[in-house]
Amino acid sequence: MPRLGHKKSRLGCRQCKARHVKCDELKPCSNCARHKVPCSLTNPDSQPSTDGSSGGRSAPTRPKQPATDDTVGKKSSTTSSPSFQIDYVLNPPTVSPGQGTSTSAASGDSSPASQPDQFPFLSRFLHRPEVIEADIWVLDLELMHHWSTEAYDGLSMRDDMRHAWRVEAPKHAVTHTFLMHELLAFSALHKVYQNLDQGPCYYACGIHHQDMAIRGIREKLHSVRPSEAAAILATSTLLTLTVFASTGFEAGCPLAVGSNSAVDDILNIFNLMQGMGNVLTIAHQFVMDSFLAPMLCDPQEDIPAQPLLQEIEQQLPALITFVEDKRDLDASERTAYLEAIANFRPALAIASPLKADNRELRFLFNWSLHLKPTFLTYTRQQRSGALVVLGYYATMFFAAEQYWYLRGWGDRLMRTCCNGVDESWAPAIQWPMSFLK
């Protein structure tokens, strides 16, 4: 007499019959799929294993262990390569780093996957064989929680924009996954700066999501649709900030990444900002009625002044005079420097009004948007005149240290500029150099 709740079957696969377990007769059956063995219901030529030591069961496989057990959790100065970190986060080991595999875990007979199915009434509703998946989604939930409780807070002092980033942006991200990836990237990199002990892990997750955001938004830039404009604007805004953050983190880990100079890094970001600036120009007309509308309007209340803006303006006449009077300067080079210096005026103008928020960011972003290719080429070549002009720009990074994603940029960029200037330009670099401690 068959057991209650257990339908007797004579059509089960040969593998289940050999192991004396109930077969659900799926093709392949759940037991064979779970144990990763051929099933006679789909492959009539397959034979059950006759290995007596394992009772016909195959031991479950385990993901490949990382080469270095104690990499994650160390301070950023000893981190391994980003590719290793990404692989570690997305494919973590089945045991904690530094621990050996226990005897019971290595034994096929004691593994849950190797035991007879005690709950066939559940197994028939599985859509695919059992696989080992990384719990990366748990980390993503942590990052989304961090976004809505802490990370968003560093984007604006205005209540309307804080609400837009904390509440509205995640809503839009549900249907625009490139924005979702960028929110998670920003959140992960914020946690890097909060907790350097776990920095490599969060950094790996952050640049993974940043990569996904870049791939996603790149597909949308060929033709900006009105329905996607707000999500594209939000993503491009955050992307510039996370690139500053990730590049800054990499600069502190020379063993983990390439050794770009600070000048090369900032020029790459200038290129990004100019490209994104073109996108923002296109998207601007579509977002006036979106959740980002407050971003395009000045706040209602006055914002505290930034004294450095006025100080830069006071220093420009002397710099202009120096460049104009330098006799050994090629005419085209002189013109390029004077044009770049002239770009400080509109950047100062957009950052100085009484109701202008994020004054430092306004200056840093606006100046780079209007730089011409000739000046960028001279800067890439690290010509002294270009480094002097860039040094004046770099002073604003020292005033922007409250933005976690810009920390360290002022000191790193200014030192590179000062070290690359020849003696004939030394008088012009004295004021920017005074910001170094």
Automatic annotation (TrEMBL):
Coiled coil: none annotated. It comes from the Eukaryota. The keyword Cytoplasm does not apply. Pfam families: Zn_clus (PF00172). Residues 37-116 are annotated as: Disordered. Residues 12-41 form the Zn(2)-C6 fungal-type domain. Residues 96-116 have a biased composition (Low complexity). GO terms for molecular function: DNA-binding transcription activator activity, RNA polymerase II-specific; zinc ion binding. CDD domains: GAL4. The chain crosses the membrane at residues 385-405. Keywords: Membrane, Nucleus, Transmembrane, Transmembrane helix. Residues 40-52, 74-84 have a biased composition (Polar residues). This is Zn(2)-C6 fungal-type domain-containing protein. It comes from Plenodomus tracheiphilus IPT5.
